[in-house]
Write the structure tokens for this entry.
Amino acid sequence: MVEIIMHVDVNSAFLSWTYAYEKQMGLERNLLNIPSVIGGSEKNRHGIVLARSIPAKKHKIQTGMSLMEARQLCPNLLILHPNYKLYVKASKSLRDYLKTYTPDVEVFSIDECFLRFTDINRQEAVELGHKIKDRVKEKFGYTINVGISENKLLAKQAGDLEKPNKCHTMFMDEIKEKLWVLPVEELFMVGRKTKSKLKSWGIYTIGDLANTDYKFILTMLKSHGRLIYNYAWGRDDSTFKERPPMKSVGNSSTLKFDVRDRETAHIILLSLTEMTAWRLREEKMSCQVVSVSIKDKYFGYKSRQRKLMYFTDCTRDIYINVCKLFDELWDEKPIRALGISLSNLEFSKSKQINIFQDELSLKNETLDKTVDKIRNKYGAESIIRGVFANSPFKPLLGGYPHDEYPDMRSIL
DNA sequence: TCTGGGGTCCTAGGACCC
DNA sequence: TCTGGGGTCCTAGGACCC
């Protein structure tokens, strides 16, 4: 049985969802028809473009650029702050709707997913793709792109062809006309650095890459070369997984001002640890590797990690290690951003005491469980640590609303 | 107050073992 | 006097994605 994979991508997702919401609320304006972006607070140093409308794109505004730059390109640009709760809700209700077509839905990001069909031919798939696209617009009030092919890579490339509100195919026998003509940077996994390397070797299109000597690409770019060479030929042997296992969990935050003392840094690290460790426990996972990262005011970036002798999901254990790592890592440069990340995850075993755990950490496990229960019932900040009671710092820092998070995947 | 935050995967180099 | 080489594990940093 031949598989058909569809890629569903919400056009200008954050803006589309905001538009649909405003429409429900009775607002007249259409954000999508004017130059508009979603961007963070410049005052809090989060001022970058997270999403842009198509008219904004025509002014050469790119996601990721600073709002200052964006405003220079388009002085009457409308800037709205993000509403992540809305996006998480919108994303979930779209996915629930898509599940009425097939149970096989793989979440790729907050605004993208793959659908798998096994009992359908090409013609039927194209009809169904158009139908899904139109029904989503009727039902939710925003547009999506649908890409159809026989594997995830080509379905995604098809979905990127022409936007918005389009349904494209890119089957293996169409790659010469549809894929090879594109600039090489439009191939999935060819980013800024790889693009400039490829161009320096005279490789400008995806077709050029496909027709370059494989050994050359492999020598120059190692396993990444193998990956993109295969992608250029439309080859992708990744499997369809409904819920790929989580490999790491972390939170980071750009601070409102540069932090210059160790004590303040430790307090912020505690609030990050509270958030990350909570999320870890919600996944019923424990970690063995703890890592801390620092971005200084000059945008220098450093990180340090440590493998523990045991697996843990305990806020206190993790925090102790976070502080040690920070103290070893910090070079006294003013700190712009701090982050922590937990990896080498495994599912938490039903409690078996291990010899590296002291009595206090066992007590803290019980404490964590109790705190989690209260937070899940009454909200994240219903219970906070004493140090945060009269402090200007948030008791939990980082992250999307506590919900089904988007799973970001770099490899399909 | 120009430059966010969530991820995955890979590589190079050092430590250590036989 | 010379100075191996394979393997594994660990860490730091970088590329890429949305």
